[in-house]
């Protein structure tokens, strides 16, 4: 049985047995927060349990490394929608120790892409089009610095209110222990960053 067939078979019984009833909630986060975190498999159940979150408590956005790499990319758009359309009034950026984005090397990723069938001429075309694959596919050296970097981009975004708390945390992916790097309540935005300070613009 294929992966998708297995999923569909299970889903049929899940719906038929009304197992969904214990997860019923609304689209608005009960705890009025949005979390940006990593897509690491270890955090799927651990992070909500370690934070005492139930279904419906928070908007959770995931990507590789819990990174905001572009101030006008899809991650920032999701955060802005969560704040203005879905009533979130606090933001938590939660990275984790032993993250796969630590030391990510673009050359290794591109080599594996070619091994899986991506033609070298495709990479050349992308590079010649001005797409900086080396920058785009590079991770970070230290998760703490990466989290603070994402916090600063969010906190200083021109489309978000200056009194919006943005917190930075790092989780141990084995124990669930959270380290608070930056508490957003204590930070004032005296030095708001202008658009010229954002990369890629």
Mean pLDDT: 93
Which spans of ≥5 residues are poorly predicted at pLDDT below 50? 188-193
Query: Which range best describes the helical content: under 10%, 10-25%, 25-40%, 40-55%, 55-70% or over 70%?
Result: 25-40%
Order of helices and strands: HEHEHEHHHHEE
Which structural class do you get from the secondary structure elements? alpha/beta
Shape: globular
Keywords: Metal-binding, Zinc
Cofactor: Zn(2+)
Family: Belongs to the beta-class carbonic anhydrase family.
Catalytic activity: hydrogencarbonate + H(+) = CO2 + H2O
Give a quick precis of the structure.
Helix content is about 35%, strand content about 15%. By secondary structure, it is of the alpha/beta class. Strands 2-1-3-4-5 form a 5-stranded mixed sheet, sandwiched between helices.
Outline the structure in words.
By secondary structure, the protein is an alpha/beta fold. It folds into two domains: about 25-100 and about 140-185, Carbonic anhydrase (Beta-carbonic Anhydrase, Chain A, 3-Layer(aba) Sandwich), CATH 3.40.1050; about 105-140, no CATH class. The protein is about 35% helix and about 15% strand. It has seven helices and five strands, in the order αβαβαβααααββ. Strands 2-1-3-4-5 form a five-stranded mixed sheet, sandwiched between helices. It is globular and about 50 Å long. Pfam families: Pro_CA. Keywords: Metal-binding, Zinc.
């Amino acid at each position: 049985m294929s992966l998708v067939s297995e999923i569909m078979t299970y889903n049929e019984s899940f719906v038929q047995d009304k197992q969904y009833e214990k997860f019923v909630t609304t689209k608005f986060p009960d705890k009025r927060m949005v979390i940006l975190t990593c897509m690491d498999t270890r955090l799927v159940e651990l992070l909500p349990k370690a934070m005492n979150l139930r279904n419906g408590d928070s908007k959770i956005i995931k990507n590789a490394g819990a990174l905001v790499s572009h101030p006008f990319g899809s991650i920032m758009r999701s955060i802005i929608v969560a704040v203005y359309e879905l009533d979130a009034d606090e933001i938590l950026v939660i990275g984790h120790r032993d993250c796969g984005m630590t030391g990510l090397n673009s050359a290794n990723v591109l080599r594996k892409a070619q091994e899986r069938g991506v033609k070298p001429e495709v990479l050349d075309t992308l590079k010649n089009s001005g797409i900086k694959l080396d920058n785009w596919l590079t991770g970070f050296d230290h998760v703490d610095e990466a989290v603070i970097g994402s916090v600063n981009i969010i906190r200083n975004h021109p489309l978000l209110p200056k009194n919006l708390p943005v917190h930075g945390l790092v989780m141990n992916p084995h124990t669930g222990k959270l380290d608070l790097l930056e508490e957003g309540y204590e930070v004032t935005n005296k030095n708001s960053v202008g658009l010229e300070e954002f990369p890629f613009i």
